[in-house]
Write a structure and sequence with these properties.
It is a single chain. The chain is α/β, with parallel strands linked by helices. About 50% of the residues lie in helices and about 15% in strands. The protein has one domain (about 5-165): P-loop containing nucleotide triphosphate hydrolases (Rossmann fold, 3-Layer(aba) Sandwich). It has helices at about 15-25, 40-45, 45-55, 60-65, 85-90, 105-115, 120-130, 130-140, 155-165; strands spanning about 5-10, 30, 70-75, 95-100, 145. It has a five-stranded parallel beta sheet. Helix 1 (about 15-25) packs across helix 9 (about 155-165) and helix 6 packs antiparallel against helix 7 (about 120-130). The radius of gyration is 15 Å and the shape is globular. The mean pLDDT is about 95.
């Protein structure tokens, strides 16, 4: 398993929850969507992340993350125009995982979570469904389900068990 992780996926599938859980186990957790990159600022990686976005290369970011002395997990529900970020991270040895779910179940989980515009969920899911061939090519076999078959949220322990079993 790679030292650093990148976790993306369908909204409301547990990306941030998994990152927080891993932080309790020694990872440095960065929620890329939190307060305009506040987590990157907190650990001094914002400049390296911005450089990754601009240059489409992850070497500087991975070196800076490695200098922190702990494994880093970044979760990001990115817009698909940033898919190149995933391939750049993968090229530097970062394991990228996709948390997947049935659209209707994920929508119900999103609504139950509250506080967010459901139209944003629908737009993001439209993008994911439209670009699934590219996403599945990039993530390959590193796709795990964030929700159970009944639509309930899987625990971080369950998701992590799938990730570690797959290597």
């Amino acid at each position: 398993m790679a030292y650093h992780l990148f976790v993306a996926g369908v909204p409301a599938t547990g990306k941030t929850w998994l990152g927080c859980w891993l932080a309790e186990r020694g990872y440095i957790h960065i929620d890329a969507e939190k307060n305009q990159g506040a987590d990157f600022d907190r650990v001094g990686l914002h400049g390296a992340w911005d450089q990754l976005i601009a240059a489409r290369q992850a070497l500087l970011f991975v070196k800076a993350a490695s200098a922190l002395g702990k494994p880093v997990v970044v979760n990001w529900g990115f817009r698909l125009c940033y898919l190149y970020v995933v391939t750049a991270l993968q090229s530097e040895g970062v394991a990228a995982w996709w948390l997947h779910a049935n659209r209707e179940q994920a929508r119900a989980a999103f609504v139950a979570r509250g506080g967010f515009d459901v139209a944003c969920f629908d737009r993001q899911m439209d993008d994911i469904e439209r670009d699934w061939p590219a996403l599945s090519l990039v993530f390959g076999k590193r796709v795990v389900h964030g929700l159970r078959q009944d639509g309930s949220q899987r625990t971080p322990e369950e998701i992590w068990a799938d990730i570690t079993a797959a290597g």
